[in-house]
TrEMBL record:
Keywords: Heme, Iron, Metal-binding, Signal. It comes from the Bacteria. InterPro entries: Cyt_c-like_dom (IPR009056), Cyt_c-like_dom_sf (IPR036909), Cytochrome_c-type_DH (IPR051459). This is C-type cytochrome.
């Protein structure tokens, strides 16, 4: 009898710990998917360009580029048209390494250069959050790429996150997950990132509402040298410049708007640690 109640008490305690772990994962997963990582910028279902919250991340929008025609897939747990039949491990591998359960490679513009850095803990949280969303049926057309896609690197075993006490490393990790440099690093004529000019801006972004050039995020005078943290936060979270002017809506402001103060501070600390480069790097 005593042993029984001990076992029952243990099971209860473990159950509570599990439930707490799951709640923490759900919260972290939501913060990453809907906030820092802005998955909905591409994967949200839209009707006439407007995001429909009830349809969640059911995909469907075309993301055309000069060299390919991509469609954002349905990543809700619908078994037929979404990721409902994938195991947690399969879903995690798709997000971090760009390999589907059938072995095929997932194409751009999903930013796998950045996502290979996702830590094991954050990947688990993202998967838990996606699985907890309502299944939405939405059949999305297949993307078309001119060439066979190659894997983004060797298989990953274990990925650790940054030491939370190291602000610059934490900021670097967040800037990676938010794929800031996907837009803020200039590219060559073939569209390849000029890594030696990381963060220098000057990439041309063509959008239906007009063209814009990404800005310089390095601590150069043409970049963030004289910016306060409040100005940086307003640019990221409200899309407003220090002069109070609205930027073009290129950045996923709705998502970045939820980035916590401590994470904003860490991102800025990292950007300030970059070598100062002139606008565009040259
Ligand atoms: C910049 C746009 C973009 C962002 C941001 C993005 N994705 Fe994707 N994602 C895509 C596109 C496009 C594809 C399909 C590429 C293809 O057809 O090969 C894709 C494919 C996927 C797939 C494979 C689905 C399938 O059925 O093949 C998963 C899972 C996925 N994304 C999850 C995520 C998650 C989770 C996030 C945020 C952490 C995210 N994506 C952020 C554009 C994006
Ligand atoms: C999808 C592309 C894209 C992504 C992703 C993106 N940016 Fe931007 N960002 C831009 C563009 C384009 C502008 C300039 C818009 C304009 O000129 O109206 C800009 C402007 C800015 C500015 C204003 C700088 C100035 O000199 O006025 C800051 C700060 C900034 N981005 C930081 C970030 C950070 C930090 C991230 C990641 C968390 C990020 N951006 C992600 C495209 C992007």
């Amino acid at each position: 009898m005593t042993r029984m109640s001990l076992a029952a008490a243990l099971a209860f305690a473990c159950g509570t710990a599990l439930a707490q772990g799951k709640a923490a994962d759900l919260e972290r997963g939501k913060y990453l998917v809907e906030g820092v990582m802005a998955c909905g910028h591409c994967h949200a279902a839209r009707v006439n360009g407007e995001r429909k919250p009830a349809l969640g991340l059911a995909g469907g929008i075309a993301l055309p580029e000069p060299t390919y025609r991509a469609f954002a897939p349905n990543i809700t747990p619908d078994p037929e048209t979404g990721i409902g039949k994938w195991s947690d491990a399969e879903l995690g591998r798709a997000i971090r390494e760009g390999i589907r359960p059938d072995g095929s490679v997932i194409g751009p513009p999903m930013p796998f250069d950045s996502y290979r850095a996702i830590s094991d803990d954050d990947l688990r949280a993202i998967v838990v959050y996606l699985r907890a969303q309502p299944a939405v049926r939405n059949d999305v057309p297949k993307s078309v790429y001119p060439e066979q896609l190659k894997p983004y690197g060797p298989p990953l075993a274990k990925v650790s996150g940054p030491d939370p006490r190291d602000r610059i490393a934490t900021g670097k990790y967040l800037v990676e997950l938010a794929h800031c440099m996907g837009c803020h690093t200039p590219r060559d004529e073939k569209g390849m990132a000029l890594k030696q000019f990381t963060g220098a801006g000057g990439q041309l972004l063509k959008r239906p509402y007009g063209d814009s050039l990404s800005r310089n995020l390095t601590p150069h005078e043409s970049g963030l040298r004289d910016w306060t943290q409040a100005q940086f936060a307003a640019a990221l979270r409200e899309n407003v410049s220090p002069q109070g002017i609205k930027y073009k809506p290129v950045m996923p402001t709705a998502a970045y708007g939820t980035i916590a103060d401590a994470d904003i501070a860490a991102m800025l600390a990292y950007l300030r640690s970059l070598p100062p480069l002139p606008f565009g790097g040259r």
